[in-house]
Structures are given as C-alpha cells and as structure tokens.
C-alpha cells in the first residue's frame, strides 16, 4: 500500500491581535492507503486544526503536506479547493446538510462542484443513498430524518466523489449510543472496502474500532500506536 498522506514538520500558528497560538508544532507523520485512524487528545490539543489542514480547508504556516504524492502546502486557494473537491470527503459533528435540499440533492452537492453532468449526478447520488440504506428517503428533507439518518446522508455525500480520504470531526458527537453504533458499522464497512478514514473523537468506543490511534497534546504527537484489538469486533 502506498502513502496517501505525508506531513513533514508541519506547523500551524494562529496569529491574533495581541498573541500567537501554535496549534500544531512540527508534526510529522505518514498515512497509508486504506488506514483506519483515530485522532484523539484534549480540547485545544490541535485535532480540528490538523483535520482542517488534512482536508485542505486550511493551510500550514510552515512545513509540507503531500497528498497522494502531490505537495499541497503551497497551492493557491483555487488549486486547494480543486484538491478538496476531488480528493477529500468530509463528515462533521453537526451533519452540515442543506435544509432546503432533498437528501438526493444534498448528496449531489460535491458532484455539482466537480462539474459532473446532471443525469450522472442523479444516478450517482441515488446509488450513494442506497449504499447508506436511505434509498427510500431520497426525496425527503434533512429535518424529516433522525440524527443518525442525517449523518448517513452526510457520509453518502462525503463518499459521492469517491475521495482518497474520508475525514470525520466528531461524527458521532451528536448521536446516542445505538445510532453511534450504526454509524461506526458504516465506517467499518467502508474501511473493509478499502477506504482511508480518519476520525477525530473524544470517545474511546469510537477509537476502539480503528486500527491506529494518534494522540495529540499541545500541538504535538504524544503517541501514535497500533490498536491491536481493532478488527476483532468485526
Ligand atoms: N481560528 C483560530 N484562531 C485562533 N486560535 C485558534 C483558531 N482555531 C483554533 N485555535 C486555537 O488552536 C488550538 C487548537 O485548537 P483546535 O480547534 O484544533 O483544538 P481541538 O483539539 O479540535 O479541540 P476540541 O476538542 O475542543 O474541538 C487551541 O488553543 C485553539 O484555541
Ligand atoms: Mg475540535
């Protein structure tokens, strides 16, 4: 398996009016295709900052970021959004669905930005809705769905453009424990299908599913270890 992500001495320093906050301090790591990873750490340790950089929503202050071999640290905003549209799938804690759009239309959003023609978009989004078990809710609006169902729509949307990496920031943070289990089962299936998945979470139960656990503390990698018990539950 090849390296899909390489971070080299990556720094993120937020500059405020009167002070600077070093949110990531020389982080170096490699992620291989198909890995299933959790990023943990206390509040403020740099998890979201790292995920935002991995997802090309933000840029490092110093250091290099390679995604699929391409150096993305120095790209322009437009180039960066191309990378984001084509290579990254995002899942957020609060689902971030568009309330005015139907389930199918929500799943289509990244395909629209990718420039896919309408009929192919429709076909692809229907397929994705079925994949996450919501084929029968295609014409509903997000508010007509439960939290877990909405998160499944968000996952279908994240998968629609067949990204290299799925990034999820606290994807089960707003869900009860049985719905959390449904979402984790879905991530497990995607992992079994070869997807590279990186989840930020506070929850040990979520981390237990993944094969590698990276712990951040004060912007540094505090530990980075295999989770030997992962997979036994599959
Ligand atoms: N836009 C910003 N401007 C200034 N400082 C920021 C900004 N975003 C994050 N920070 C600071 O950077 C550090 C890391 O924040 P980050 O959001 O990455 O933490 P986190 O690990 O995701 O925390 P949480 O678990 O609370 O979500 C914190 O000290 C935070 O205050
Ligand atoms: Mg965060």
Summary, kept brief:
The protein is of the alpha/beta class. The protein has a single domain, classed as P-loop containing nucleotide triphosphate hydrolases (Rossmann fold). Helix content is 33%, strand content 29%.
Descriptive keywords:
single chain; Rossmann fold; six-stranded mixed β-sheet; four-stranded antiparallel β-sheet; 7 helices; binds adenosine-5'-triphosphate; binds magnesium ion
Q: Tell me roughly what share of residues is in helical segments.
A: 25-40%
Quaternary structure classification: single chain
How many helices? The count is: 7
Poorly predicted runs are none
Q: State the strand order across the main sheet.
A: 6-7-8-3-9-10
Percent of sequence in beta strands: 25-35%
For the termini, the CA-CA separation is 22 Å
CATH superfamily: P-loop containing nucleotide triphosphate hydrolases
Query: Regarding CATH, which class?
Result: Alpha Beta
Small molecules in complex: adenosine-5'-triphosphate, magnesium ion
Number of strands: 10
Question: Any idea what the CATH architecture is?
Answer: 3-Layer(aba) Sandwich
Largest sheet report: 6 strands, mixed
Taking all Cα atoms into account, the compactness measure Rg is: 18 Å
Morphology call: globular
Structurally, the number of domains stands at 1
Mean pLDDT: 93
- Secondary-structure class: alpha/beta
CATH topology heading = Rossmann fold
């Amino acid at each position: 398996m090849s390296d899909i992500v390489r971070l080299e001495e990556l720094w993120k320093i937020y500059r405020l009016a009167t002070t600077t906050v070093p949110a990531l301090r020389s982080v170096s790591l490699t992620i291989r295709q198909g890995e299933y990873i959790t990023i943990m750490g206390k509040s403020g340790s740099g998890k979201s900052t790292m995920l935002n950089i991995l997802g090309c929503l933000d840029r490092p202050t110093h250091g290099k970021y390679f995604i699929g071999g391409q150096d993305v640290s120095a790209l322009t905003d437009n180039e960066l959004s191309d990378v984001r549209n084509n290579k990254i799938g995002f899942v957020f804690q609060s689902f971030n669905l568009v309330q005015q759009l139907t389930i199918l239309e929500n799943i289509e959003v990244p395909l629209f930005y990718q420039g896919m023609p309408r009929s192919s978009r429709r076909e692809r989004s229907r397929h994705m809705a079925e994949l996450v078990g919501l084929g029968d809710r295609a014409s509903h609006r997000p508010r007509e769905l439960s939290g877990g169902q909405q998160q499944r729509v968000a996952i279908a949307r994240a998968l629609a453009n067949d990204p290299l990496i799925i990034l999820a920031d606290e994807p089960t943070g707003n869900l009860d424990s049985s719905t959390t289990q449904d979402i984790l089962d879905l991530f497990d299936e995607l992992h079994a299908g070869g997807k590279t998945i990186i989840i930020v979470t506070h929850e040990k139960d979520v981390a237990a599913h993944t094969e590698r656990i990276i712990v951040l503390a004060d912007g540094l990698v505090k530990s980075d270890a295999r989770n030997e018990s992962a997979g036994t539950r599959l």
